[in-house]
């Protein structure tokens, strides 16, 4: 009888474990209604281009600047930091595009616009157009998978889609992919970041597989079985499995310096990507409740106060690098060989550190000195402030003391 009770408990434990895996908290997953060009409609969890599946993941593309009204004014007075008008500025007819991106949680509707572009309607009502710039948009996309509530898993190419309406997601939906990977990443310099993980721009879930060779044998190991991964060398990774076994895998870009980066979404910063040479180890953990669709507002105009080296200050709506003007937009730079993509809404202050860097302070108190991007160095194309009086001040990087953003 005792043996029977033990057997029953084991079976129950297995069933509970399987149920927990199949019905993980999916409230943070991308979810929506996909309409095809043939008029068919599918609704369910969405996995985008292999490596985006949560509201915090970033849709990358080139933003069409011609749609930005604040950049298309004709005969605006240009005010330099010394307060001296220097004539009138006439806009060019075509302002081109700029590299951009935003979290999926800000998007209300996406509509393909040809084989290399998409029209986005944000929750704020703002409409923008992204053109290519990554495999996230256009014919180069690596597939859009929807786990339809009735039909099961279906994969679509870009040309199949007429529109996708994004919607809030319930917490207990079934997904064959499992839970989103979550953990703490440590770099070779000892920096630590905790958040949602994307491995090698491919693997996101506990049901995804890391592959490599061990002692001449091919191995495929689900992330659900992995407790931690450490960099063993430029050509290998050391895995500690949940049962305590340790193995070293080699010979694939999952586990060597051909790895396309380990990305982690840290809620107080944004998305960070660490390359293989800077990666030390990652410890996987049970995830907390994820950010949900309703946690994103669609963005609003950047606002704050710009201080100059000579003591002037300008308060109002801000356009950074003559490009970014909303809280959903991204400031990018590099810190300790880690690429940062920081949503402007998370930034409290930016202060230049000479010509080639800037100290960026988050609302959560952390600060990083970033470099390697015209967002944070002397190649910045200007910080523009539209004051309450309707005039626009332009501040050059060399004249800038700091910017304090309004939360």
Describe this protein's structure:
By secondary structure, the chain is mainly beta. The chain folds into three domains: 113 residues, no CATH class; 107 residues, no CATH class; 106 residues, no CATH class. It is 5% helix and 47% strand. It contains one helix and 32 strands. The strands form four sheets. The protein has a ten-stranded antiparallel beta sheet with strand order 6-3-9-8-7-12-1-2-10-11, with no helix packed on it. Strand 13 and strand 14 form a beta hairpin. It is globular, with a radius of gyration of 24 Å. The N terminus is likely disordered.
Q: In summary, what is this structure?
A:
This protein has 407 residues and is mainly beta. The chain has 3 domains: 31-71 and 95-166, no CATH class; 182-288, no CATH class; 300-405, no CATH class. The protein has one helix at 2-22, and strands at 31-36, 41-48, 58-64, 74-79, 85-90, 97-103, 107-112, 117-122, 127-131, 144-148, 152-156, 161-166, 182-187, 192-199, 209-214, 217-222, 226-233, 236-241, 246-250, 262-266, 270-274, 279-284, 303-308, 313-319, 330-335, 338-343, 347-352, 357-362, 367-371, 383-386, 392-395, 400-405.
């Amino acid at each position: 009888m005792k043996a029977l009770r033990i057997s029953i408990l084991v079976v129950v434990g297995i069933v509970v474990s399987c149920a927990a895996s199949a019905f993980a908290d999916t409230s943070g997953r991308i979810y929506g209604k996909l309409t095809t060009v043939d008029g068919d409609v599918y609704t369910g969890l969405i996995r985008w281009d292999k490596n985006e599946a949560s509201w915090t993941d970033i849709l990358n593309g080139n933003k069409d600047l011609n749609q930005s009204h604040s950049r298309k004014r004709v005969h605006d007075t240009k005010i330099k930091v010394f307060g001296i008008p220097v004539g009138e500025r006439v806009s060019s007819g075509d302002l081109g595009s700029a590299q951009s991106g935003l979290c999926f949680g800000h998007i209300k509707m996406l509509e393909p616009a040809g084989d290399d572009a998409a029209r986005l309607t944000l929750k704020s009502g703002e409409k923008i157009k992204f053109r290519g710039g990554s495999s996230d948009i256009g014919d180069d996309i690596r597939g859009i998978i929807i786990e339809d509530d009735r039909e099961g898993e279906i994969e679509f190419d870009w040309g199949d889609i007429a529109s996708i309406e994004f919607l809030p997601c319930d917490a207990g939906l079934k997904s064959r992919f499992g839970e989103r990977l979550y953990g703490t990443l440590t770099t070779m310099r000892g920096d630590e970041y905790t958040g949602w993980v994307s491995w090698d721009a491919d693997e996101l879930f506990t049901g995804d597989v890391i592959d490599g060779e061990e002692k001449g044998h091919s191995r495929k190991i689900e992330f659900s079985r992995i407790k931690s991964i450490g960099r063993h060398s430029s050509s290998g990774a050391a895995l500690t499995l949940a049962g305590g076994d340790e193995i070293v895998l080699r010979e694939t870009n999952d586990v060597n310096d051909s790895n396309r980066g380990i990305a982690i979404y840290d809620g107080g910063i944004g998305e960070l990507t660490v390359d293989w040479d800077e990666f030390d180890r990652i410890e996987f953990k049970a995830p907390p409740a994820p950010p949900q669709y309703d946690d994103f507002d669609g963005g609003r105009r950047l606002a704050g106060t710009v201080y100059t080296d000579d003591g002037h200050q300008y308060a109002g709506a801000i356009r950074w690098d003559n490009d970014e003007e909303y809280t959903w937009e991204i400031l990018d730079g590099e810190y300790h060989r880690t690429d940062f993509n920081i949503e402007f809404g998370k930034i409290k202050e930016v202060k230049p550190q000479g010509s080639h860097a800037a100290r960026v302070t988050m609302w959560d108190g952390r600060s990083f000195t970033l470099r390697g991007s015209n967002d944070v160095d002397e190649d910045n194309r200007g910080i523009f402030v539209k004051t309450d009086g309707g005039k626009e001040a332009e501040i050059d990087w060399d004249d800038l003391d700091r910017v304090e953003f309004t939360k």
